Amino acid sequence: MKMNLVNMNPFVMLRKNDGFTMIEMLFSLMILMTTSLFVLELFSTIHTQVRSIDKLHPKEWEVFTMQMQQEVRSSKDQDVVGNKLYLLSGEQLSSIEQYEDKVRRRVNGMGHEVILQNISEFQVEKDGGVIVLNITDKAGTTFSRRFHPFFKNVKKVDE
């Protein structure tokens, strides 16, 4: 008498011609989902890189304006000469200027701190006590902001 041995190897079961089993369907679904996840991430990365080549990101503009507001308000004196903004804070003279396609900050004529990029035009002017910045990005979008400095008069009064 011959006994039929049942083979419990799952890979042998995959070779049957009876159709898909539940395990085969789950395995196929897992491969499909993993592949689609990577493809979606790839397209998202490519789209972000293409979009950011010539545009100024709104969050970058927001951070720039907050930094500028803080620096202008903490400065004792402000001046605009030749499309450059000079801010005097204590013993440090900071300059904000356009350098190629960037806006950079220099302290005492030294350094190169990039504070904004993808810029095609940078204009700064002083309107009374207010500093007006107009910036155009490479895509042609213009951003404008007015900064109101705090003037600190340090005078000693003899009593």
Keywords:
159 residues, alpha+beta, three-stranded antiparallel β-sheet, 35% strand
Structure described in brief:
The protein has 159 residues and is of the alpha+beta class. The protein contains three helices and eight strands.
Structure description:
With 159 residues, the protein is of the alpha+beta class. It has two domains: 19-49; 58-147, no CATH class. Helices cover 33% and strands 35% of the residues. The chain contains three helices and eight strands. It has a five-stranded antiparallel beta sheet, covered by helices on one side. A hairpin with a 2-residue loop joins β2 and β3. The chain starts with 9 loop residues before the first helix and ends in a 12-residue tail after the last strand. Mean pLDDT is 82; it is low at 152-159.
Layout of strands and helices, then pairs:
Blueprint lengths: L9 H5 L7 H30 L6 H17 L2 E5 L2 E6 L2 E8 L2 E6 L2 E8 L1 E9 L2 E8 L4 E6 L12
Antiparallel strand pairs: 1-2, 2-3, 3-4, 4-5, 6-7, 7-8
- Provide the low-confidence segments as ranges: 152-159
Strand order of the largest sheet: 1-2-3-4-5
Give the count of helical stretches: 3
**Total strand segments:** 8
Structural class: alpha+beta
How does the overall form come out from the CA principal axes? Answer: rod-shaped
